[in-house]
Structures are given as C-alpha cells and as structure tokens.
Write a structure and sequence with these properties.
The structure is a single chain. Strand 8 and strand 9 form a beta hairpin. The strands form two sheets. Strands 3-2-1-4-5-6-7 form a seven-stranded mixed β-sheet, with helices on both faces. The protein has a two-stranded antiparallel sheet with strand order 8-9. The N and C termini lie far apart (70 Å). The radius of gyration is 26 Å and the shape is globular. The protein is 55% helix and 7% strand. It is α/β, with parallel strands linked by helices. The structure holds NADP nicotinamide-adenine-dinucleotide phosphate. NADP nicotinamide-adenine-dinucleotide phosphate binds next to helix 1, helix 4 and strand 6.
Length: 482
C-alpha cells in the first residue's frame, strides 16, 4: 500500500490527463498521484517523465492511499459513462471531505446530477471546465470550476498554480455551485463556434469579392490582429491561410474538404439557450453552418439551384475589406453579448451567482477564444454588473455605431452575391430586433389569440385580453381575465 505522499491525483492518463498531470507536477509543492484503468498508460507516463516524480497507482485503493487528506483527484477520462464509472470507484475509496473533480467535457446537467449524488456521501464533487486542449493542459489552461465553497478552499490554490496567466492573474475562478463550471465552459465553446464561423465568413467574402489568394488574405488577418480584433483565432486563421499543401503545392485551405466537424458543445449551447429562451442566433447559425456543410448529398443535388446572375466584383477592394473588418467586429460583439446573456440566464435558472467580469477575465489566456477584447467585456461588467445587454455597454455601443453602416453594406453585398453569411446576417437581424421600437411580435400575438385563444396584453391598459374572433369578426370583445 502506498504512503500518503501526494497532494493531488489524476485519473485518466490519455492526452489530456497526462498533460495535466505533468503540468501539476511541474509546479512547486505538488506531488501527483496518477492512475489509469489500463496499466500501460501509467507505466509509459512514469517512464517518459521521470522528472515529474509521479506516484503511480495501479488500483483505486492504492490511488486513495497515496493521497494526503483531504484527498483531491482530477478525473480526465472519456466524458459520459467513463466519468460515472470512475466516480463510482472513487466514492468507494474516498472519505467525507475528500474532493473529486471532473475535468472532462461533461454536459452540465450530468454534473448537477453527479454533484447531488456524490454530496450524499459527504464527498465534494466539482465539475471543472478545462479549456485549451492538449497544449493548455500542459502549459496552462483556462479553468472553470463549479462545486462547493468548501472544495474551492483546497482546490483553488492547486488550480491557480496550473492555470494560464493573463496580465498577472491566473485564469481560474470559482464559477458557482454544482454545474456552473461546466455550464460556462459549454457557453465558451458555443462562443468559439460563433467566432470561428464569423471569421470564416469574412474570409469567404474577401476571397470571392476581391479575388485575393489565401496567402494575401492571411496578410489581411495578420494586419487585423494588430487592432481591436486581436485574438488567438485571428492569429491562427492567418497561419492556416498561409499554409501550403506539401503534396500539391496548393493553399492547404483549398485541399481541405469543406465539411466542418463538431463534438457537440455548440449544439448543447443552443439547446440550452432554447430552453432558457435566450436568442443565441450567432452560435446557432455557426452550429447549423457546420451541419449544412456536412451534408454533401444535399449539397450535391442543391448545386443545380440558381444563384444571382451577376458576378460578384468589388469596386474598391480596400474599402470592402475595411467594411468586412467592421462587420466582423460588430457581429463578434453580438455573438459575445448573446453568449453572456445565456450565462446570465443560466445563473438565474440554476441559482448560481456568477461574476460575469471574472468569467471574461479567465478567458483571456489558455483557451481558444483568448483575446484582448475580453478585457473590454470585463470592464463593462465591472462598471455595470447587472447590465442587461452587453452590446449596450458604452465601448461596444460605440463600436456598433461606428460599424453598423459597413455591417449593412457587407450583408447586402453578400446577399446580392449569393454568398452565405448566416452569422453576419443573423447578428445584424438580432441587433435590429433588439433596438426596434416596435416588433411584429404584436401580430404573432394576434395570430396566437386567433387560433388558440392564447390571449395578449395591450399597450394602453393592464390585464390580459382575448378577442372573440368568430362571427363577422368585426365584433371585438376584450376580456380582462386577471
Ligand atoms: N478541454 C479540451 O480542450 C479538451 C480536449 C480534449 C479532451 N477533453 C476532455 O478531457 C477528457 C479526456 O480527454 P482525452 O482526449 O485525454 O481522453 P479520451 O480519449 O476522451 O478518454 C480516454 C481515457 O478515458 C479512460 N476511460 C474511458 N472509459 C473509462 C472507464 N469506463 N473507466 C476508466 N477509465 C476510462 C481511458 O482509459 P484506458 O486507457 O484504460 O482506455 C483513457 O484514459 C474528456 O472528457 C474530453 O472530452 C478536453
């Protein structure tokens, strides 16, 4: 039986777990116990990284015995049944007060369920969203832990020691109780979908409107990366566009099959938003755009449908590129505003206290959407923690004011040219819907009352009303039902 030498353990030593374990081991004061279901991964990790001084365990009993109390273990296994299987085993060998952390990509309702079940044993369960992939796990991820306040006391310093650092601050904060961490990680991924789709639409418009080559457009993105669009995603877009395929000598982007994959977190974000009644149209369109791209059988038959007759040619290339930049920034503001709206609504629904400014700050490094821009979001929520719409904060309102004419020109040009820009145009439609004095929702209410007696409210008096639509339909009788 091992002696209790380790202050933290990792279960699951595939790519993510082994890198996270190495990250933990590299930080002062940490001794890391490691366990994997099949022994080979444990042996390989220990042999390949003697510098880490791992305490390997080959049974859950040994793993528990090698941890000092309160025992703290991070699970990094295949999300779903794998996570449940490991929790079941750890619960048998851990004691009340110990901490089980699920660092995998769990769906937040599963985390809520697991937290509730594990809490009954007196053991703490923490669902922690960990972003940044393999490199983040090794060098410093952005970490979004949920769970109890008690577990944060032990876990906080450990997670702070391994997280990415942005402007001197570790990219981890206690997001809220039970599933709050995985909820926020889910929305992070949804925003990532929207950001990527917007960038892809900007590229497509420039390419098809100006005839520039991918390498030339890489220069455009590299230039944009020096301004307000500065971000990891813009930076890597330039690199992807510059890449030449070694085999054919063509731009790599022209050789890659145009069918985008997805692992499901975008869909979760949209499904959750639908049940919360939050319009995350940018994220939804980005998710649907991936789905559309991945139906080659439909695309093949639809290719015969007509598009516009006239060729798309931009008269002033520089002016068009600047318009696309402004449209991209405006649409990005809307996508983030919608994402934060979903977090705000989720917090209200699940009774979490989430500091939106802190969330924005921990995304500044270690994750895919890292960007300077997140400082502006953090500032907006510091100035007005209850801000109902992020896009209305002074900095963003000014950017939307500056960009909206260009945004409209780009959406019009894309529509006339037959170039799909679902994220650009849906963001603009959301913007116009949100700022409208009056919406045709009034007519929808009338229709609902007509066919289903769903009632409506009036602009000029309190109460709930129903019109008697039958008969000659001129008779309108309002009935105050409250
Ligand atoms: N945040 C990110 O950027 C990011 C990126 C990638 C992955 N992830 C998440 O991180 C987690 C780990 O990902 P990964 O790619 O390293 O590994 P993975 O391929 O998702 O899972 C493989 C690991 O899970 C273990 N496992 C599977 N079923 C198990 C069970 N029933 N009992 C015990 N162990 C079981 C495997 O053990 P064996 O070796 O015995 O098969 C192996 O260690 C996942 O939840 C994944 O979604 C996050």
């Amino acid at each position: 039986m091992n002696a209790a030498v380790a202050n933290i353990g990792v279960v699951g030593l595939a790519v993510m777990g082994s890198n996270l374990a190495r990250n933990l081991a590299s930080r002062e004061g940490n001794k890391v116990a490691v366990y994997n279901r099949s022994r080979e991964k444990t042996d390989a990790l220990v042999v390949e990284h003697p510098e880490a001084g791992f305490a390997p365990a080959f049974s859950y009993e040994d793993f528990a015995a090698s941890l000092s109390k309160p025992r703290t273990a991070i699970i990094m296994v295949k999300a779903g049944r794998g996570t449940d299987a490991v929790i079941d085993e750890l619960v048998k060998v851990f004691e009340p007060g110990d901490i089980i952390v699920d660092g995998g990509n769990a769906y937040f309702p599963d985390t809520i369920r697991r937290e509730k079940a594990v809490r009954e044993t007196g053991i703490n369960f923490v669902g922690a969203g960990i972003s940044g992939g393999e490199e983040g796990a090794l060098l410093g991820p952005s970490i979004m832990p949920g769970g109890s306040d008690e577990s944060w006391v032990t876990l906080g310093p450990i997670l702070k020691s391994i997280a990415a650092v942005a402007e001197g601050e570790p990219c981890v904060t206690h997001i809220g109780h039970d599933g709050a961490g995985h909820f926020v990680k889910m929305v992070h991924n949804g925003i990532e979908y929207a950001d990527m789709q917007l960038i892809a639409e900007a590229y497509d418009l420039i390419r098809r409107g100006t005839g520039k080559t991918p390498a030339e457009i890489a220069d455009v993105f590299a230039e944009w990366n020096k301004g307000e669009l500065e971000s990891y995603l813009i930076e890597i877009t330039a690199e992807v566009l510059r890449q030449v395929d070694a085999e054919t000598g063509k731009p790599l982007v022209d050789v890659i099959l145009d069918q985008a994959g997805a692992k499901g977190t975008g869909a979760w974000t949209v499904q959750t938003a639908l049940s919360l009644g939050v319009p995350v149209s940018g994220i939804a369109e980005a998710t649907f755009a991936r789905s559309l791209s991945s139906h080659p059988e439909q695309r093949a038959v639809a290719a015969s449908l007509p598009g516009p007759d006239e060729a798309f040619e931009v008269a002033d290339v520089d002016a068009f590129i600047e318009d696309v930049r402004l449209a991209l920034f405006a649409s990005k503001i809307i996508a983030y505003s919608q994402g934060f709206d979903e977090i705000r609504a989720g917090a209200a629904e699940y009774d979490w206290t989430i500091d939106l400014s802190a969330v924005s700050k921990i995304w500044r490094a270690g994750c895919i959407i890292r960007a300077q821009f997140l400082n502006r979001i953090a500032d907006a929520y510091v100035d007005a923690p209850d801000l109902p719409v992020l896009a209305t904060a002074p900095y963003f309102a000014a950017a939307l004011t500056d960009g909206q004419a260009a945004w409209r020109r780009v959406v019009v040009a894309a529509t006339q040219a037959g170039i799909p820009s679902p994220a650009f145009s849906s963001s603009l439609a959301y913007y116009d819907g949100l700022r409208a004095d009056r919406l045709p929702a009034a007519l929808v209410q009338g229709q609902r009352d007509f066919f289903g007696a769903h009632t409506y409210k009036r602009i000029d008096k309190e109460g709930t009303f129903h019109t008697l639509w039958s008969g000659d339909r001129t008779e309108i009788e309002a009935e105050d039902t409250h």
